[in-house]
Amino acid sequence: MDTVLEIKNLGMSYETTEGSVSAVDNVSFRIMNGEAMGLVGESGCGKTSLGMCIMKLLPENAKITNGEIIFDGEDIVPKTEDEMRMIRWKGVSMIFQAAMNALNPVYKVGDQIIEAIVAHENIIKEEAREKVRELYKLVGLSPERMENYPHEYSGGMRQRAIIAMALACDPKFIIADEPTTALDVIVQDEIIDEIKNIQKKLNMIMMYISHDISVIAETCDKIGVMYAGNFIEYADTFALFDNPLHPYTKALMSSFPSIEGPKKELKPVPGEPPNLLNPPRGCRFYPRCSYAEEICRNERPEFVESEKGHFLACHLVI
Ligand code: SF4
Question: Is the CB of 301 inside a 6 Å radius of any atom of ligand 1?
Answer without folding.
Answer: yes
